[in-house]
């Protein structure tokens, strides 16, 4: 970690977004993670994402659990509200916050330990409810803060720093999410910001559960030869299913497909994700097809990235639950307290 | 039998022994309500198994002209409808009492007791002749014994008819059959027995302005009126009916008239950990939110309770206590979560507890719990129990003041933040240990980082020993402030009291009755009913004024006594435990006996 804080001054030549904010307005405090940590690259991608989408920082709620990943909400959007909860329980806190105030933009940061071991139940149930949030898993296959134990996402045969070989089957966050019916499932690599930013934009604009599983190497405990979550291994084995662009609502979709098939995928707010297929037959709108394809990749040790699955007709929690549009915290007491006469009437049944 | 049964007008206990899942609940409820509508104070306790169908279940109705709410320990009339439990049911009848049984089959060998009266009615035979389908035969057998009892106890048939008319207003096909079944039983009793019995009901005027309601429903009403908009829960007996009631109230009174949409959000969580996580997410966001649970759920919620204490989030948690430890007796009552709740979670934690005594207090203390949680920015646990939560109690009608506005405590909203220079979440501006909070999304200046790790006054991460100690010391100062906000205990003084009695929650009825009897025996005692933890100065004053204090509670280990020893100036020599922990609600005779034994032991020692 570095310990000299950067002064917040912007160069006049730097760009401002639609709100007149600099990208630096989206930064957080100095990271205390190890130098070169993949998580810091993800924080940088998030900063760029929120800046480019011109989202008011104070309208964002950042939630997290416990672990290296869950510390990172401190390292981006310091003007946003944050709830760093207990291990594996970020989804439930986000659910409650969203129930009370659905007008916020929710971004939950979790890790492979936080979501795939201690928090596996909450992870699956948040998907089942189709909670409207961007759910980010910073996936490094290892427990960093406790110094290098395998996590549930470690591949069979992957080795720990001291040579121990993992022999348990991995839990794949993206496959699980697709199987549970998440409406937006993407996978990225912390080392590929160009691909990651549009995937994050789509996740924030998707209405409903948007999972972004990001391979994010742990430079201290899982970046050695023999690890399948190292920078070197990921660079060698990841391949993009499609090139992804994010097009905001007002912008026209211009086609320059360079001979490849181009698919615009509409998001709830009118923005689009533009997919230029690299993998010829891959259709991210086909749940069963996507699952089968990704399962095969997993068995072959490949790491496909990009928008893995999208359900354009996803119905989020509140829609299904018939919750009023007005955030519940904005209802007046008169709107929710029935009053003395009603109490008397209510008690009539108990006489 | 030779013994003549004394007259017990409006002062007796009827116990009904049934088989779970046979529809006896509605018949028994009809019986209780009839007595209530005749103006006679009445309470009912349901002793049911953790089972849907087949196991034994009992319903105990106490008719008390003096308005005593607890069990008395006697059974004047047993309605023995369950052959599995005949032997015990027979043994339980107080000498001179009655046992009503189904004489469709010979039972003589099983029913051997010559100090009570046996009343045989061929109920099964009668209903089998009247009804053809098997379900009706089972259901109407229950209604038929209500008819029998109406004659034996001198219940007003017009009141029974009126209740049936209301119950089946929309199911007229069932109405006639119900009336018929009542008449069937009533006619048989009038023809074969000398009616009414010496134990009987005479109309009074003592239930006007009262309702018969259970505590979970009352607490749900409290949530509705206090303005709770988010509720999260995981089903667990005996707290489940609280959220069930809240849901049906919301569906009736919280639908937006224009859009037809919900002005509430109820989430059935995947477990109790998620339920409390959701509740805290909602209170962080500024909603009034709650979670109801019972013992095992409270254990699971421990980690989040520590987080809420340390990060100072409001939370209303209902613990409808059941018999522990572990799974324990899930459908039986106890007050055995007191210590677990008071100090829930690792590290130095302590929590506010409220102890309602009955459904009426469930309503009022629920509203107060929301105000306190917001004002004090900490979890407030309402420690009800199965006896209060699931049994029907007679209570004065709840009143609501339309001028009530929620006390949201120290919150800076948009306007205040607009004009504020800066905001520090954990800065003790007013010196009372309670800081100002904001709601997410209100204002850029209000943003802060809530974390369960060490934090500074500015909500920044810290491991600094001084900053950590400052925080822990402020939370201790806040605890002192909290004491001044606690609902006051209720004092019942008696002339020339020889000792003090201290209790909480549902023990109240039994204690009050026991103290009346003890005073008649020349042993008057003062009684303080504690309504909250932390204990305030009135509790201290009571302890200071009484050399000996009997602490009555419904657990094995004397948890309220432990808490007093730990958190007040009470001494070991001063406090004497009166304990009851078999899973059934406390009865007055058990309190009387234990106090008598303890008094004579002390007397002998002195």
Name a few traits of the molecule.
heterodimer, A: 351 residues, alpha/beta, eight-stranded mixed sheet, 12 helices, 13 strands, B: 606 residues, Pyruvate-ferredoxin Oxidoreductase, domain 3, Rossmann fold, 4 domains, seven-stranded mixed sheet, globular
Number of strands of chain A: 13
Q: Can you list the strand order of the major beta sheet of chain A?
A: 2-1-3-4-8-7-13-9
Distance between the termini of chain B: 46 Å
The N- and C-terminal alpha carbons of chain A lie at a distance of 69 Å
CATH class of chain A: Alpha Beta
CATH architecture of chain A: 3-Layer(aba) Sandwich
Number of domains of chain B: 4
**Largest interface between protein chains, with number of residues from each side:** A-B, 59 and 72 residues
Strand order of the largest sheet of chain B: 11-10-12-13-15-14-21
State the helix count of chain A: 12
CATH topology of the largest domain in chain B: Pyruvate-ferredoxin Oxidoreductase, domain 3
Average pLDDT of chain B works out at: 96
| Oligomeric assembly | heterodimer
The SSE string of chain A, one letter per element, is HEHEHEHHEEEHEHEHEEEEHEHHH
User: What is the count of β-strands of chain B?
Assistant: 23
- Percent helix of chain B: 25-40%
